[in-house]
Specification:
Layout (H helix, E strand, L loop, with lengths): L9 H23 L18 H13 L5 H10 L1 H7 L7 H10 L2 H16 L11 E11 L8 E3 L2 E11 L4 E9 L5 H7 L4 E5 L6 H9 L3 E5 L6 E6 L8 E9 L11 E8 L2 E7 L6 H10 L1 H13 L1
Parallel strand pairs: 1-5, 5-6
Antiparallel strand pairs: 1-3, 2-3, 3-4, 6-10, 7-8, 8-9, 9-10
Helix pairs in contact: 3-4
Length: 312
Amino acid sequence: MPDTIKPENKKQRKRRRKTPSFQKLTRPMNDILPNISPLQARGNRPLQMTLEDQLNALIYFHLEEHSSGRHLLQALEEEDFAREQIAPKEGIKKSSFFEAINTRGLEQLLEVFQALSPKTTRVLPREFSNLGDLVSIDGSLIDAVLSMTWADYRKGAKKAKVHLGFDLNHSIPSQIFLTKGKADERPFAHKILAPGQTGVLDRYYQCHKNFDRWQTEGKHFVCRIKVRTKKTCIRPLEGKPDHFIFYDAMVLLGTPGVTQTEKEVRVIAYRVGSKEYWIATDRFDLSAEQIAAIYKLRWNIEVFFAWWKRYL
């Protein structure tokens, strides 16, 4: 009897449709891989997973919403698509897989991010273009795996700290630095912020020397400041009676001869319910309402941190 071709079942059709979409998703990554630092084996054993294998496994893990590394390994062994398209050609053992995922490739992952991030900004729609190139800057503690011995935070806990620049116009991270959990966040603000950009920062980043330095370097800022910060008014700006913005003036911030800024900054203050917000900025080209709107956008980086910690 001649062989007959069995019709595809539902699962097979789904798998066939899935293959091109995964390849399309990973094509930008594969295009930049030749320029990424080579992944080095540790010890005498050759690499069981290439960097491409490692990245494909991580992407597949999140697309399929696997619950654990063991769950992913089971899929790499038992599912046709995962075994043929995701797993290394020779397969991967549990010990080799977890060694690769936990201890190798951090430098390369950061390089991949830095190479892909500028490409995404040319594809994603740009919001708030009338307000300029906005970058929210903040730091947050993240859980560290046991192999990250450098990330000791306190007894019984391993925490790393991420210092993040978040592109508010495109709603994606633009700069990432990883340090041990005890590292100070302020020095990274200068590393993240580029000339022409406007950094949007919370009170912790208030630093009068930085306000002077950034103005000299063409870097802009919208930074919340402490209510009790001393302000020497140079000239008040036009205000509106009975408006939620109750202060708008050019000032010198800080104690004269001690912490006072050398350059003038603009300070606006507004109320939301019973809460007051005092904002320092060098964006003299915007209205006070626009400055308040920019600071409100800072909350988007907190939303990103919450998503990251929940899903990644």
